[in-house]
Amino acid sequence: MADTFNYRIDHHGSLVRPAELTAARASGDPQAVREAELRAVQEAVAYQRKLRSTVVTDGDFPREDFRGAVLDAVSGFRRTDEVGADGLTRWVAESLPKANGPLLADWAARLAELTVIAPKASLPSPAYLAATTFQPGLGLASARELGEALAELIHAEIELLVSQGVRLIQLNNPLLLGQLATAPADPGALSFEDALAVDALAIRLDERPEGVRIGVAPGWVAPEAVDRVRAERLYGAIAADRWILPLDRGTEAELDLVRALPEGWDVCLGVVDATVPQLEELDTVMARIDAVGEFKDLEDAAVSPSRGFADVADRPLLSAEEQRAKLVLVETVARYVWGNEF
Prior knowledge:
By secondary structure, this protein is an alpha/beta fold. It is 39% helix and 15% strand. It is built from 11 helices and 8 strands. It has helices at 19-27, 30-50, 68-71, 105-114, 126-133, 143-163, 192-203, 228-237, 252-259, 282-293, 320-338, and strands spanning 74-83, 89-99, 120-124, 168-172, 213-217, 242-246, 266-272, 301-305. The chain has a 6-stranded parallel beta sheet. Helix 1 (19-27) packs antiparallel against helix 2 (30-50), helix 5 (126-133) packs antiparallel against helix 6 (143-163) and helix 5 packs across helix 7. The two termini are 15 Å apart.
Protein backbone atom coordinates (compact mmCIF):
# COMPACT_ATOMS: atom_id res chain seq x y z
CA MET A 1 0.00 0.00 0.00
CA ALA A 2 3.05 2.24 -0.11
CA ASP A 3 2.26 5.62 -1.68
CA THR A 4 2.52 9.32 -0.85
CA PHE A 5 -0.38 9.32 1.62
CA ASN A 6 1.09 7.67 4.70
CA TYR A 7 0.83 10.76 6.92
CA ARG A 8 4.16 9.85 8.50
CA ILE A 9 4.05 12.21 11.51
CA ASP A 10 0.82 11.40 13.28
CA HIS A 11 -0.80 11.76 16.70
CA HIS A 12 -3.93 10.19 18.15
CA GLY A 13 -5.99 13.35 18.24
CA SER A 14 -6.21 14.68 21.79
CA LEU A 15 -3.87 17.41 23.01
CA VAL A 16 -3.41 19.12 26.37
CA ARG A 17 -6.07 21.84 26.70
CA PRO A 18 -4.78 25.41 26.98
CA ALA A 19 -5.38 27.30 30.24
CA GLU A 20 -7.71 29.82 28.56
CA LEU A 21 -10.06 27.05 27.42
CA THR A 22 -10.04 25.41 30.85
CA ALA A 23 -10.88 28.74 32.47
CA ALA A 24 -13.71 29.41 30.01
CA ARG A 25 -15.23 26.01 30.77
CA ALA A 26 -15.03 26.72 34.50
CA SER A 27 -16.87 30.02 34.01
CA GLY A 28 -19.97 28.24 32.74
CA ASP A 29 -20.56 30.92 30.08
CA PRO A 30 -21.53 29.11 26.83
CA GLN A 31 -20.51 32.03 24.62
CA ALA A 32 -17.12 32.30 26.31
CA VAL A 33 -16.62 28.56 25.88
CA ARG A 34 -17.43 28.67 22.15
CA GLU A 35 -15.06 31.58 21.59
CA ALA A 36 -12.30 29.92 23.63
CA GLU A 37 -12.74 26.66 21.73
CA LEU A 38 -12.37 28.37 18.37
CA ARG A 39 -9.27 30.30 19.46
CA ALA A 40 -7.77 27.15 20.96
CA VAL A 41 -8.35 25.15 17.77
CA GLN A 42 -6.86 27.92 15.64
CA GLU A 43 -3.77 27.98 17.84
CA ALA A 44 -3.59 24.17 17.84
CA VAL A 45 -3.50 24.10 14.04
CA ALA A 46 -0.63 26.60 13.98
CA TYR A 47 1.13 24.61 16.70
CA GLN A 48 0.88 21.35 14.76
CA ARG A 49 2.16 22.97 11.57
CA LYS A 50 5.18 24.39 13.41
CA LEU A 51 5.90 20.88 14.64
CA ARG A 52 5.83 19.70 11.00
CA SER A 53 3.01 17.27 11.69
CA THR A 54 1.57 15.70 8.56
CA VAL A 55 -1.87 15.53 10.19
CA VAL A 56 -3.91 18.28 11.83
CA THR A 57 -6.62 17.71 14.44
CA ASP A 58 -8.73 19.95 16.65
CA GLY A 59 -6.98 18.44 19.69
CA ASP A 60 -10.37 17.21 20.95
CA PHE A 61 -10.64 20.73 22.40
CA PRO A 62 -14.43 20.99 21.85
CA ARG A 63 -15.03 17.76 23.81
CA GLU A 64 -14.87 16.54 27.42
CA ASP A 65 -13.16 13.30 26.40
CA PHE A 66 -12.39 11.21 23.33
CA ARG A 67 -15.92 9.74 23.30
CA GLY A 68 -17.57 13.14 23.09
CA ALA A 69 -17.89 13.24 19.31
CA VAL A 70 -20.63 10.64 19.72
CA LEU A 71 -21.93 10.98 23.27
CA ASP A 72 -22.35 14.76 22.97
CA ALA A 73 -24.17 14.55 19.65
CA VAL A 74 -26.64 11.66 19.89
CA SER A 75 -29.68 10.88 21.99
CA GLY A 76 -30.28 7.66 23.91
CA PHE A 77 -27.48 7.94 26.51
CA ARG A 78 -27.60 9.10 30.12
CA ARG A 79 -24.62 10.50 31.97
CA THR A 80 -24.09 9.11 35.48
CA ASP A 81 -22.12 10.33 38.48
CA GLU A 82 -19.73 7.37 38.30
CA VAL A 83 -16.11 7.95 37.23
CA GLY A 84 -13.80 5.08 36.34
CA ALA A 85 -10.13 4.68 37.21
CA ASP A 86 -9.29 6.05 33.76
CA GLY A 87 -11.10 9.31 34.58
CA LEU A 88 -13.95 8.64 32.17
CA THR A 89 -17.44 9.44 33.37
CA ARG A 90 -19.80 6.49 32.99
CA TRP A 91 -22.61 6.81 30.48
CA VAL A 92 -25.39 4.25 30.04
CA ALA A 93 -27.51 3.55 26.98
CA GLU A 94 -31.25 3.77 27.62
CA SER A 95 -32.47 3.49 24.02
CA LEU A 96 -31.10 3.08 20.53
CA PRO A 97 -29.07 6.17 19.63
CA LYS A 98 -30.22 8.80 17.18
CA ALA A 99 -27.97 11.49 15.73
CA ASN A 100 -28.95 15.10 16.31
CA GLY A 101 -26.74 16.30 13.45
CA PRO A 102 -23.15 15.83 12.27
CA LEU A 103 -20.76 14.41 14.88
CA LEU A 104 -17.45 15.94 13.79
CA ALA A 105 -18.06 17.33 10.34
CA ASP A 106 -18.63 20.92 11.48
CA TRP A 107 -15.28 21.09 13.25
CA ALA A 108 -13.56 19.28 10.38
CA ALA A 109 -14.85 21.97 8.02
CA ARG A 110 -13.40 24.67 10.27
CA LEU A 111 -10.06 22.87 10.32
CA ALA A 112 -10.05 22.69 6.54
CA GLU A 113 -10.39 26.48 6.43
CA LEU A 114 -7.34 26.92 8.67
CA THR A 115 -4.76 24.80 6.85
CA VAL A 116 -3.94 23.28 3.49
CA ILE A 117 -3.21 20.00 5.30
CA ALA A 118 -6.19 17.66 5.17
CA PRO A 119 -7.63 17.39 8.68
CA LYS A 120 -7.70 14.19 10.69
CA ALA A 121 -10.78 13.11 12.65
CA SER A 122 -10.81 10.71 15.61
CA LEU A 123 -13.94 8.87 16.72
CA PRO A 124 -14.68 6.32 19.45
CA SER A 125 -15.43 2.94 17.95
CA PRO A 126 -19.04 1.73 18.14
CA ALA A 127 -17.94 -1.56 19.69
CA TYR A 128 -16.11 0.28 22.46
CA LEU A 129 -19.11 2.48 23.21
CA ALA A 130 -21.49 -0.48 23.20
CA ALA A 131 -19.24 -2.52 25.50
CA THR A 132 -18.93 0.30 28.02
CA THR A 133 -22.44 1.80 27.99
CA PHE A 134 -24.76 -1.19 27.65
CA GLN A 135 -26.62 -2.05 30.82
CA PRO A 136 -29.14 -4.91 30.93
CA GLY A 137 -32.70 -4.03 31.87
CA LEU A 138 -32.78 -0.59 30.28
CA GLY A 139 -34.79 -1.50 27.20
CA LEU A 140 -32.10 -2.70 24.79
CA ALA A 141 -31.96 -6.34 23.76
CA SER A 142 -28.17 -6.67 23.71
CA ALA A 143 -24.87 -4.86 23.46
CA ARG A 144 -24.62 -6.16 19.89
CA GLU A 145 -27.88 -4.40 18.98
CA LEU A 146 -26.57 -1.17 20.50
CA GLY A 147 -23.25 -1.56 18.74
CA GLU A 148 -24.83 -2.07 15.33
CA ALA A 149 -26.97 1.05 15.75
CA LEU A 150 -23.89 3.06 16.71
CA ALA A 151 -21.97 1.58 13.78
CA GLU A 152 -24.57 2.91 11.35
CA LEU A 153 -24.31 6.42 12.83
CA ILE A 154 -20.51 6.39 12.75
CA HIS A 155 -20.47 4.93 9.25
CA ALA A 156 -22.68 7.76 8.03
CA GLU A 157 -20.36 10.28 9.71
CA ILE A 158 -17.28 8.73 8.09
CA GLU A 159 -18.90 9.03 4.67
CA LEU A 160 -19.76 12.68 5.40
CA LEU A 161 -16.22 13.45 6.59
CA VAL A 162 -14.67 11.87 3.51
CA SER A 163 -17.04 13.83 1.26
CA GLN A 164 -15.87 17.03 2.96
CA GLY A 165 -12.19 16.32 2.34
CA VAL A 166 -11.07 14.56 5.52
CA ARG A 167 -8.43 12.06 4.49
CA LEU A 168 -7.44 10.38 7.76
CA ILE A 169 -10.05 9.01 10.16
CA GLN A 170 -9.19 7.05 13.28
CA LEU A 171 -11.47 4.81 15.34
CA ASN A 172 -10.37 4.26 18.94
CA ASN A 173 -11.23 1.00 20.70
CA PRO A 174 -9.02 0.73 23.80
CA LEU A 175 -10.42 -2.73 24.65
CA LEU A 176 -9.27 -4.77 21.67
CA LEU A 177 -5.61 -5.34 22.54
CA GLY A 178 -6.68 -6.96 25.79
CA GLN A 179 -8.57 -9.50 23.70
CA LEU A 180 -5.40 -10.46 21.83
CA ALA A 181 -3.64 -11.68 24.95
CA THR A 182 -2.91 -15.38 25.29
CA ALA A 183 -5.20 -15.12 28.33
CA PRO A 184 -7.77 -12.60 27.02
CA ALA A 185 -9.20 -9.92 29.31
CA ASP A 186 -12.88 -9.79 30.18
CA PRO A 187 -14.58 -8.39 27.04
CA GLY A 188 -17.31 -6.72 29.10
CA ALA A 189 -20.77 -6.48 27.59
CA LEU A 190 -19.63 -7.30 24.04
CA SER A 191 -17.78 -10.47 23.01
CA PHE A 192 -14.61 -10.29 20.91
CA GLU A 193 -16.37 -11.64 17.82
CA ASP A 194 -19.26 -9.21 18.23
CA ALA A 195 -16.83 -6.32 18.70
CA LEU A 196 -15.08 -7.18 15.43
CA ALA A 197 -18.39 -7.40 13.57
CA VAL A 198 -19.61 -4.08 14.94
CA ASP A 199 -16.44 -2.10 14.20
CA ALA A 200 -16.26 -3.67 10.72
CA LEU A 201 -19.73 -2.26 10.00
CA ALA A 202 -18.61 1.26 10.85
CA ILE A 203 -15.63 1.50 8.51
CA ARG A 204 -17.02 -0.21 5.43
CA LEU A 205 -16.72 2.00 2.35
CA ASP A 206 -17.43 0.84 -1.18
CA GLU A 207 -14.82 3.26 -2.50
CA ARG A 208 -11.98 5.12 -0.87
CA PRO A 209 -10.92 8.33 -2.63
CA GLU A 210 -7.21 8.78 -3.27
CA GLY A 211 -5.28 9.31 -0.06
CA VAL A 212 -8.06 8.31 2.32
CA ARG A 213 -7.01 6.18 5.28
CA ILE A 214 -9.40 4.79 7.87
CA GLY A 215 -7.39 3.60 10.85
CA VAL A 216 -8.12 1.65 13.99
CA ALA A 217 -6.32 2.08 17.32
CA PRO A 218 -7.09 -1.18 19.16
CA GLY A 219 -5.55 -0.09 22.46
CA TRP A 220 -2.71 1.81 24.05
CA VAL A 221 -0.50 -0.95 25.53
CA ALA A 222 0.37 -4.36 24.10
CA PRO A 223 -0.52 -7.39 26.25
CA GLU A 224 2.27 -9.42 27.82
CA ALA A 225 1.90 -12.07 25.13
CA VAL A 226 -0.08 -12.01 21.89
CA ASP A 227 -2.27 -14.81 20.60
CA ARG A 228 -1.29 -14.78 16.91
CA VAL A 229 -4.53 -16.42 15.76
CA ARG A 230 -6.67 -13.81 17.51
CA ALA A 231 -4.48 -11.00 16.17
CA GLU A 232 -4.86 -12.26 12.62
CA ARG A 233 -8.60 -12.56 13.22
CA LEU A 234 -8.69 -8.90 14.28
CA TYR A 235 -6.86 -7.66 11.19
CA GLY A 236 -8.86 -9.91 8.89
CA ALA A 237 -12.27 -8.97 10.27
CA ILE A 238 -11.95 -5.17 10.23
CA ALA A 239 -11.06 -3.74 6.83
CA ALA A 240 -8.97 -0.86 8.13
CA ASP A 241 -6.35 0.78 5.93
CA ARG A 242 -4.14 1.61 8.90
CA TRP A 243 -3.49 0.10 12.31
CA ILE A 244 -2.18 2.28 15.12
CA LEU A 245 -0.08 0.04 17.37
CA PRO A 246 2.14 0.62 20.42
CA LEU A 247 5.92 0.42 20.09
CA ASP A 248 7.03 2.35 23.17
CA ARG A 249 8.00 -0.48 25.56
CA GLY A 250 10.34 -2.53 23.41
CA THR A 251 8.57 -5.83 24.07
CA GLU A 252 8.33 -8.90 21.88
CA ALA A 253 4.54 -8.66 22.07
CA GLU A 254 4.67 -5.24 20.36
CA LEU A 255 6.63 -6.80 17.51
CA ASP A 256 4.19 -9.71 17.37
CA LEU A 257 1.31 -7.28 16.83
CA VAL A 258 3.08 -5.90 13.76
CA ARG A 259 4.16 -9.35 12.54
CA ALA A 260 0.52 -10.46 12.44
CA LEU A 261 -0.43 -7.62 10.05
CA PRO A 262 -1.00 -8.70 6.44
CA GLU A 263 1.83 -7.64 4.18
CA GLY A 264 1.40 -4.21 2.62
CA TRP A 265 -0.98 -2.82 5.23
CA ASP A 266 -0.25 0.55 6.79
CA VAL A 267 0.88 0.68 10.39
CA CYS A 268 1.37 3.71 12.62
CA LEU A 269 3.90 2.94 15.36
CA GLY A 270 3.40 4.59 18.75
CA VAL A 271 7.09 5.16 19.40
CA VAL A 272 7.03 7.51 22.42
CA ASP A 273 5.18 6.97 25.70
CA ALA A 274 2.53 9.66 26.11
CA THR A 275 2.06 8.83 29.80
CA VAL A 276 5.51 9.66 31.23
CA PRO A 277 7.43 12.95 31.04
CA GLN A 278 10.85 11.37 30.54
CA LEU A 279 11.96 11.72 26.94
CA GLU A 280 13.03 8.56 25.15
CA GLU A 281 16.57 8.18 23.83
CA LEU A 282 16.58 8.57 20.06
CA ASP A 283 18.86 5.53 19.65
CA THR A 284 16.42 3.39 21.65
CA VAL A 285 13.48 4.44 19.50
CA MET A 286 15.42 3.84 16.30
CA ALA A 287 16.51 0.39 17.46
CA ARG A 288 12.85 -0.57 17.96
CA ILE A 289 11.94 0.71 14.50
CA ASP A 290 14.90 -1.16 13.00
CA ALA A 291 13.55 -4.34 14.61
CA VAL A 292 10.22 -3.76 12.86
CA GLY A 293 12.05 -3.04 9.60
CA GLU A 294 13.50 -6.55 9.62
CA PHE A 295 10.08 -7.98 8.70
CA LYS A 296 7.90 -4.96 7.75
CA ASP A 297 8.34 -2.55 4.84
CA LEU A 298 8.73 0.82 6.54
CA GLU A 299 7.31 2.51 3.43
CA ASP A 300 3.97 1.30 4.80
CA ALA A 301 4.60 2.85 8.22
CA ALA A 302 4.20 6.08 10.17
CA VAL A 303 5.09 7.17 13.69
CA SER A 304 3.16 8.79 16.54
CA PRO A 305 2.94 8.95 20.32
CA SER A 306 1.55 5.82 22.00
CA ARG A 307 -1.86 7.40 22.72
CA GLY A 308 -3.61 10.74 23.12
CA PHE A 309 -2.14 13.25 25.56
CA ALA A 310 -5.47 14.25 27.08
CA ASP A 311 -8.18 11.76 26.17
CA VAL A 312 -9.98 13.19 29.22
CA ALA A 313 -9.86 16.98 29.11
CA ASP A 314 -9.32 17.58 32.82
CA ARG A 315 -6.81 14.73 33.20
CA PRO A 316 -3.91 15.52 30.85
CA LEU A 317 -1.17 12.89 31.01
CA LEU A 318 1.65 15.40 30.54
CA SER A 319 2.22 19.14 30.70
CA ALA A 320 2.01 21.19 27.51
CA GLU A 321 5.81 21.50 27.36
CA GLU A 322 6.33 17.76 27.95
CA GLN A 323 3.81 17.07 25.21
CA ARG A 324 5.71 19.35 22.85
CA ALA A 325 8.99 17.54 23.53
CA LYS A 326 7.35 14.19 22.73
CA LEU A 327 5.88 15.50 19.48
CA VAL A 328 9.22 17.01 18.46
CA LEU A 329 10.86 13.64 19.05
CA VAL A 330 8.26 11.92 16.86
CA GLU A 331 9.07 14.40 14.08
CA THR A 332 12.80 13.80 14.55
CA VAL A 333 12.31 10.04 14.36
CA ALA A 334 10.35 10.41 11.12
CA ARG A 335 13.18 12.40 9.56
CA TYR A 336 15.73 9.76 10.60
CA VAL A 337 13.62 7.01 9.03
CA TRP A 338 12.34 8.70 5.84
CA GLY A 339 14.38 11.87 5.40
CA ASN A 340 12.07 14.60 4.10
CA GLU A 341 9.84 12.25 2.08
CA PHE A 342 6.56 12.75 3.89
